[in-house]
Each structure stands twice: as structure tokens, then as C-alpha cells.
Specification:
Layout (H helix, E strand, L loop, with lengths): L1 H17 L16 H14 L11 H25 L7 H10 L1 H11 L4 H18 L5 E3 L10 E3 L2 H17 L7 H4 L1 H23 L19 H7 L6 E2 L2 E2 H29 L4 H19 L1 H4 L3 H4 L5 H14 L2 H8 L7 H10 L1
Antiparallel strand pairs: 1-2, 3-4
Helix pairs in contact: 3-5, 3-9, 3-15, 4-5, 6-7, 6-9, 9-15, 11-12, 11-15, 11-16, 12-17
Length: 359
């Protein structure tokens, strides 16, 4: 992307440098055109002006079938992978054998293993509560780009406070005996179920908010229907910068919940592996470490992310909000989670080399 941008800039520069600016001497000013010539020029300009593109029409494939397909398959896939990685052998062969034995029995097992429970609710409440406390820490105010309708979001730049304090509190809580360090793995199935069902309901709330329904109002001017039907509006979202109680929904969900869970999942999964096998798995430990370093970099750059396409173009709907709330914790952690039951079998030197290369 950087190379493409550089090439475009060079092309743009070459065009401007190849066309020397012409200056008109005051002594050689042309006389004003006559009214007839002025009208003729206006007519020619109007004829030469490009026509504005007509608004896109509702497409059965793009705006109905494909969003519906994604909204059915992706939550199902998250539940299946949560069930599969809890099996003694989390492999595709295990999934194929269970499906062959009976799809109905498999579906019942998947739902049972990912059914929300009270412990998952307590875990997510504590997780979100701590994130909210750190969210309130003051910091220098940074701004996002001005939107098409004139909104300019402001953010307190306190991401590194979150990056340091949240993992520290998480580890200290485990050290104090409040919960095992493997807590994210121990309650993963129920957590995915709660995030999924809660995320779908939350997207419905955001849909209503962007359309000024249920007594809710948009947080800014960049809101309303896409004109492509209810299904697509739910999928794409109806508001660009929604806020609830003064909290920026996109920043809180995408960064302070989604990325934080991904950051700590590797730590928790490595602890779960150690408790099951009695030793540290080098492949899992250094994979988790590389993810942790990567996400430290993400929080260092969080304001840059708040100026990216995810934030300034994509609205807060199923595609964006559910994706960060459920897909990232479920699928971005799949490789490290599967290694809890199925250890990497590596000695320390190869993962160290991979970790060093990754850095």
C-alpha cells in the first residue's frame, strides 16, 4: 500500500512539474467576453461537466443474500470452533467424525458447550468494568478526520495507560488467588456464547439508535439508513460514531474489549496448557508473546487506528461491531487455543528463532 501511494504521489508530481504554470501579464489582459460568448461558455461547461453517479440500487445478492449468509455462518463458525478446541483432539478429523455420527447431536453438543452461564457473565462484567475505569483516565485530546457531514470525533489519548494497567491487574488478580490465570480458557465456550448472543442484540440496539427509534437518538450527523433495506442496515450499521453514556462505542469495543481479549488470551491459554501438561509449551508461549508485543504496538498506535478505514468509513453494525466483539476473540485466538489440548511439540530453539524473526 505504501509503494502504491508513493507511486501515485510521484505520478501526480510529474504531471504538475510537466505543466509549467502560465502567468498572464496585466498589460495583456483579454477583454471581458460579451454576454453572448459568456452564455455560450456556460452552456459548454455544463455539457462538459461529468454527470453525478446515480445512487446504487438495491441488489439482491450484495445487500440481502451475502449479508444474510455472513450473519448466519460466522456466528455458527465461532460456536463450532469454541466447541472443537475444547475436545481432547481439536482437529478437523474430530469435527468430521462428530458430524458423520449425527448432525443433530453435534449441534446439541456445540450449543451446550457454548451456552452462556453466570460465570461467563461475571467474567465479562469485570472485564468491561475494568476497561471502563481505565477509559476514564484523562489524556491529551486527539482528533479524528472530519466526516462527510462535518463531525470531528475527539479522543483522550490514554491507550498506553490501558495497555499497561489492564494486563497488570489481570496478572495480579490471578496471583492474589481471585481466579486462575487460565480463566479465559476455562470459560471460553460460555464466553463466546454470551458475546455472540449479546453482540447480536447490541447491534440491534445500535441499529435502532442510528434511526432514532426506541427513544434513542444518534450521537452525531453521520447516521441514518443506507436505503438498501433493513437487513443491510443491520449488517452495515446506521451510525458512524455512536456513543453511549459518553463512551465511544467503536473505540471501546474494537480496542478496549476486542484487542485486549486477544492480547491476554495467549497468556491465559499458556497457563491452561501448563496446568494440563505440567510444563510450558515453547510454541504456545512464544506465539502468545509475539501477539502480546504486536498488541502493545497496536495500543501505542491506537489514535492512528481511530483515523483508519475501520473507524472513519465502516459504520457500527454487525460487520464492524459484532466482528470485533465476537469474531476477533473467537477466531484470532484459534491457533493458540488449539495448542492447549494439542501441544506444539517444539523445543525452545525453533520458536525462539521464529519469535526473533517476528520482532
Amino acid at each position: 500500500a505504501t509503494e502504491c501511494l508513493a507511486a501515485l504521489c510521484l505520478c501526480n508530481l510529474s504531471v504538475h512539474t510537466a505543466m509549467p504554470a502560465t502567468r498572464r501579464s496585466p498589460a495583456r489582459e483579454r477583454p471581458s467576453p460579451s454576454p453572448q460568448r459568456r452564455r455560450s461558455g456556460v452552456a459548454k461547461s455544463a455539457a462538459a461537466a461529468p454527470k453525478q453517479a446515480a445512487p446504487s440500487k438495491l441488489s439482491l445478492v450484495d445487500h440481502v443474500l451475502l449479508p444474510l449468509l455472513l450473519m448466519i455462518t460466522t456466528p455458527t463458525f465461532c460456536h463450532i470452533t469454541a466447541w472443537l478446541t475444547a475436545q481432547p483432539e481439536p482437529t478437523l478429523s474430530t469435527l468430521a467424525a462428530a458430524a458423520a455420527a449425527g448432525p443433530a447431536a453435534l449441534a446439541a453438543d456445540v450449543l451446550a458447550s457454548t451456552m452462556p452461564d453466570a460465570k461467563a457473565a461475571v467474567l465479562l462484567t469485570a472485564f468491561s468494568g475494568l476497561a471502563l475505569l481505565i477509559y476514564a483516565i484523562p489524556g491529551p485530546v486527539k482528533f479524528g478526520p472530519i466526516s462527510d457531514r462535518g463531525a470531528r470525533p475527539a479522543y483522550a489519548d490514554n491507550a498506553m495507560w490501558h495497555c499497561v494497567l489492564f494486563p497488570l491487574v489481570f496478572v495480579l488478580g490471578a496471583a492474589a488467588g481471585l481466579y486462575p490465570l487460565s480463566v479465559l480458557y476455562d470459560h471460553f465456550g460460555a464466553t463466546v456464547g454470551l458475546l455472540n448472543f449479546g453482540g447480536l442484540a447490541f447491534c440491534a440496539l445500535l441499529y435502532a439508535k442510528g434511526l432514532s427509534r426506541l427513544g434513542l437518538r444518534p450521537s452525531g450527523p453521520d447516521a441514518g439508513s443506507s436505503g438498501k433495506g433493513l437487513l443491510f442496515d443491520y449488517y452495515w450499521g446506521t451510525e458512524l460514531y455512536p456513543q453511549l453514556g459518553g463512551v465511544d462505542v467503536k473505540r471501546f469495543v474494537n480496542c478496549r474489549i476486542s484487542m485486549t481479549y486477544w492480547m491476554l488470551a495467549g497468556v491465559s491459554f499458556a497457563a491452561a496448557s501448563h496446568s494440563r501438561h505440567g510444563r510450558l509449551d515453547p510454541g504456545l508461549v512464544l506465539c502468545a508473546a509475539s501477539q502480546f508485543v504486536y498488541l502493545v504496538k497496536f495500543f501505542y498506535w491506537e489514535i492512528g487506528y481511530m483515523r483508519s478505514i475501520d473507524i472513519i468509513t465502516d459504520r457500527a453494525g454487525f460487520y464492524e461491531t459484532w466482528g470485533c466483539l465476537v469474531w476477533v476473540p473467537s477466531i484470532y485466538t484459534l491457533h493458540t487455543r488449539s495448542m492447549v489440548q494439542l501441544p506444539s511439540g517444539l523445543s525452545w530453539p525453533p520458536p525462539r528463532a521464529g519469535f526473533a524473526r517476528g520482532l
